């Protein structure tokens, strides 16, 4: 049982974890912290949090667990704001989509990565943001990756693992660098393709007609281009090396595909599409 949980950034992710822990009867008191007063008032009205503050130091002062779910670009400032008031036994975790940058931010502010800090990332979300979009089942049967360091306290890791399990998630552990490479491929690259495709089409002269005649495939493929621009700017900047490597691989794949199409090589196209279909069908079967 958590006596007092501080959620810094009560949006889709912070709000959903607060709701899930409340639904599972794992928490007594939840204090929310953020910048937008309207969002915090709504969070309190919805019963997601019990109290709010705009000041991260006030939020964490009496907390036994702190969950930071702000955009990545705000993490360093938040660490600086809480540094002097954190109790040594308070466990801190986060939900940021990139782990190397968060660990570097903690290192820069604290001078070392605090043993009670357990970096984390729920592999679950939607294209929507804010507490209005949060829901308690978001993490149910979804994966959460924790990336503890050698200096991470085993009890803090166990506590954060139990927290996500109580929210219904399956917890995996991996290194920070491996996490950032894997997520560049499976999450960050697909978001770039969706943003890039929609932006390209939106800039075409006849864009109204392009969108009018778009079919279901276009809608499915581009849902994630409705995601929060600030959050995705921060993810790109935080994972710039792994993501630019993946984008270079993908550009190469597209150049080859274009050449295959231009050459009218139907046999090669069939090979590519058959291989891709088999891989996706396996992935979907495995996900059930
Ligand atoms: N949206 C998604 O599907 C997923 C997002 N994430 C990660 O979770 C984090 C939060 O994302 P969302 O919940 O989607 O965003 P969101 O926009 O719904 O919520 C973020 C909240 O942080 C607050 N905030 C911004 N700057 C702040 C600051 N300096 N101090 C305190 N609060 C501040 C905002 O007011 C907002 O309420 C991000 O780091 C993102 O990379 C992880 C998994 C999935
Ligand atoms: O909306 C979707 O399908 C997503 O893929 C959400 C998402 C966004 C960022 C993450 O770090 C993890 C999941």
State the low-pLDDT regions, or none: none
Instruction: Give the names of the bound compounds.
Output: 1,4-dihydronicotinamide adenine dinucleotide, 3-(4-hydroxy-phenyl)pyruvic acid
Looking at CATH, the homologous superfamily of the largest domain is NAD(P)-binding Rossmann-like Domain
**Highest CATH level, the class of the largest domain:** Alpha Beta
Q: Label the overall shape.
A: globular
Overall mean pLDDT: 96
As for the number of domains, it is 2
What is the topology, as strand order, of the major beta sheet? 3-2-1-4-5-6
Architecture per CATH nomenclature, i.e. the level-2 architecture of the largest domain: 3-Layer(aba) Sandwich
Q: Counting H and I runs of at least 4 residues, what is the number of helices? A: 12
What share of residues are in beta strands?
A: 5-15%
CATH domain fold name of the largest domain: Rossmann fold
Class derived from helix and strand content: alpha/beta
Distance between the termini: 31 Å
- What is the C-alpha radius of gyration, as a whole number of Å? 21 Å
SSE pattern: EHEHEHEHEHEEEHEHHHHHH
